[in-house]
Design goal:
Layout (H helix, E strand, L loop, with lengths): L4 E6 L5 H10 L12 E3 L5 E6 L4 H7 L4 E5 H7 L3 E6 L5 E8 L14 E4 L2 H11 L4 E4 L15 E6 L3 H5 L2 E10 L1 E6 L4 H21 L1
Parallel strand pairs: 1-3, 1-4, 7-8, 7-9
Antiparallel strand pairs: 2-3, 4-11, 5-11, 6-9, 6-10
Bound molecules: phosphoribosyl ATP and zinc ion (ZN).
Phosphoribosyl ATP binds next to helix 3, strand 9 and helix 5.
């Protein structure tokens, strides 16, 4: 049986198109049928699994997928045993604290004793611990930006790219706690066949990135 490299990418969402595009630029053709969970490359020994981004680190840790394309924010939040091997240059954003526009945030001490809404409790808690701040974290899975407006929180910690979502909700960015972009992660104990295929893919990814600079 021919060995294949099993790759996890986002099924739909902000990283899906750029992930497929990067593979294509690497000369790898994926037939991407809508609603398909799995696909096979026609010209590279590769199988692609389409998954929720949140699940990708776990799949890679378990070795169900050998590698995955996912946001660094998700990698650090899930904290699984998967290794970041390459930054992919798309999906750029930052995880930031934001407060109501009128609030005077000078540094993290502002957060002492306050309520913060976020979908990133792990990364936020690490930040607070490092700053020696005690705050109450409210974990919510979406629409974090409305939390201050409805009295659920004093501040939020969420992903920002253009900043327009914050602006529309009367919030301002107070502090960035993580810069993020899509990365390639790999299972920690790849077999030698998979490692050879990964090296081949990485060689092509690096060439694509270089051509863009
Ligand atoms: O369904 P699934 O779970 O796979 O997808 P998802 O809804 O969890 O993730 P998705 O598709 O929204 O984002 C996937 C990844 O894209 C994230 O994990 C980040 O690594 C990256 N990314 C880049 C972003 C953004 N930019 C971004 N702006 N993810 C989310 N946002 C959201 C942010 O949460 C906020 O609501 O966009 C809004 C802010 O955008 P601006 O431009 O108004 O600042
Ligand atoms: Zn998700």
């Amino acid at each position: 049986m021919e060995q294949k490299l099993k790759v996890a990418i986002q099924k739909s969402g902000r990283l899906h198109d750029d992930s497929i595009k990067l593979l294509k630029e690497c000369g790898i053709d994926i037939s991407n049928g809508v609603n398909k969970l799995k696909s096979e490359a026609s010209n590279f020994p590769m199988e692609v699994y389409f998954l929720r981004d949140d699940d990708i680190p776990q799949y890679v840790e378990d070795g169900v997928a050998h590698i995955g394309f996912v946001g660094e924010n998700v990698v650090y939040e899930k904290n699984k045993k998967a290794e970041v091997v390459e930054h992919l240059g798309f999906g750029k954003c930052r995880l930031s604290l934001a407060t109501r526009r009128h609030e005077k945030y000078e540094d993290a001490r502002f957060l002492q004793g306050k309520k913060i809404a976020t979908s990133y409790p792990v990364i936020l808690q690490q930040f607070l611990d490092k700053q020696g701040i005690q705050a109450e974290i409210h974990e919510i899975s979406g629409s974090v930006e409305i939390a201050p407006g409805i009295g659920l929180a004093d501040a939020i910690c969420d992903l920002v790219s253009s900043g327009s979502t914050l602006f529309m909700n009367g919030l301002v960015e107070a502090e960035t706690i993580l810069q993020s972009q899509a990365v390639l992660i790999k299972n920690k104990v790849l077999g030698s066949d998979q490692q050879v295929l990964l090296d081949k893919l990485l060689f092509r990814i690096k060439a694509v990135k270089k051509a863009k600079n």
